[in-house]
Amino acid sequence: MSQTATHAEHFDATASKIGMWLFIFTELLLFGGLFIVYSVIRFSNQVAFHLAAEELSVSMGAVNTVLLLISSMTIAMSVSSVQFGNKKLTLFLISITILIGLVFLVNKYFEWSTKIEHGLYPGSSVLQGFGNGDTLFFGLYFFMTGLHALHIIAGISILAWVLKRVADDNIHAGHFVHLENGALYWHLVDVIWIFLFPLFYLIS
């Protein structure tokens, strides 16, 4: 490979990383704004939020937290393994991360289903009977955890694309910026959940 081509590849990798960090910054601004909105509304409805949070399953939220922490470890390990040229281990670790993301979504589906069956969703007659504070709590709960679930789906899609590129030898020890970017996005998803978990599940 010529020196010019090497410089061009290095520039593309640097630009790609900068682009990902800028994207992550905008995502942090989005969720940061939502956290502020949550805090303001919670301050005005402390008792209602306290009682509404008791309807959530702390154990299920904790399981999802552990799952995402493990997935952060596996995707970080995949970046290290690709640098050592271990393609088989890299594919395995990315696959495990994707699988954990899918399990997270399945858990979230069952959790949401239970709440909906009990009428604990915005606009339901059950919540209207409880009062405005409970409606606000579950409105924020479904919106913010739903937005996070969409980010999980996006992360799984990105990692699936990265997995294929690793399998096709387009990502390797000499060029793995796309895997690094995918890992950064997945870490973002994990960090967001680490904030969501105590905000909704532990305030009671």
What does this molecule look like?
With 204 residues, the chain is mainly α. It has 7 helices and no strands. The protein has helices spanning 3-44, 46-53, 58-83, 87-117, 125-130, 132-167, 177-201. The chain starts with a helix and ends with a helix. The model is unreliable at 1-8 (pLDDT under 50).
Features:
single chain, mainly alpha, 204 residues, 85% helix
- CA-based gyration radius: 20 Å
Give the DSSP E fraction (strand runs of 2 or more residues): under 5%
N-end to C-end Cα span: 60 Å
Helical segment count: 7
Number of strands: 0
Q: What topology emerges from the helices and strands here?
A:
Blueprint: H1 3-44, H2 46-53, H3 58-83, H4 87-117, H5 125-130, H6 132-167, H7 177-201
Helix pairs in contact: 1-6, 1-7, 2-6, 3-4, 3-7, 4-6, 6-7
Q: How would you summarize this macromolecular structure in one to three sentences?
A:
This protein is an all-alpha fold. The protein has 7 helices and no strands.
